[in-house]
Structures are given as structure tokens and as C-alpha cells.
Amino acid sequence: MSRALCLLILLPLAGCATSPIPLGLPCSVGPILLDHSASTRLTRGEKEQIVTVNRTGERLCAWKAP
Q1: Cβ(32)–Cβ(56) below 8 Å
Q2: Pick from 36, 19, 35: which is nearest to 27 by CA?
Q3: What is the number of other CB atoms lying within 10 angstroms of the CB of residue 54?
Q4: Which residues contact 15 (CB under 8 A, 6 or more apart)?
Q5: Quick one: pLDDT band at residue 11, thresholds 50, 70, 90?
Q6: What is the DSSP letter of 47?
Q7: How many CA atoms lie within 13 A of 18 on its CB side?
Q8: pLDDT above 70 for 14
């Protein structure tokens, strides 16, 4: 019983490890676009994360730079 339960939990997770980037993501979402007041609301770390996501999208998904 416990072995079957482990297989039911772990088997679907094993398929996720075969692709470095989940298929469809981030390409299906598009670049992150910010409004003008975002620079005052976001921390430096958040801004760096957004830039990283947008640059990754440009490289992997052929997004155009915002």
C-alpha cells in the first residue's frame, strides 16, 4: 500500500525534472511590463528579477524588449 502511494506521488514529479524550463512557460505569458510608478514601489531585487525574466524571454522565446 505505501509503495503504491509513493509511486503515485513521485511518478508525476519525475516527468517535471526532464525539462529545464516548463513547456509553455515563460513563453506563453510574455514580458513583464511596468507602469511609471513601479520604480518607487519595487525593491532593487524585484526590479533585477523582472529584468532577468524579460532577458530570459528574449533569449528563449524571442520576446521583444519592452
Answers
A1: no
A2: 19
A3: 19
A4: none
A5: low
A6: H
A7: 6
A8: no
What residue type is assigned to position 64 of the chain?
K
Using CA atoms, how far apart are residues 27 and 2, in angstroms rounded to an integer?
38
∠2-4-7 over CA atoms, to 5°? Answer: 110
In 3D, which of 54, 4, 45 has the Cα closest to residue 26? 54
Q: Measure Cα distances from 25 to 12, 16, 39, 45, 66 in Å.
A: 18, 13, 26, 22, 18
The whole model's pTM is what?
0.57
What's the CA gap between 20 and 38, in Å, rounded? 30
Question: 32-46: per-residue pLDDT in tens?
Answer: 888 888 888 999 999
* pLDDT value at residue 39: 80
Give me the residue spans of the domains in the chain. Answer: 21-66
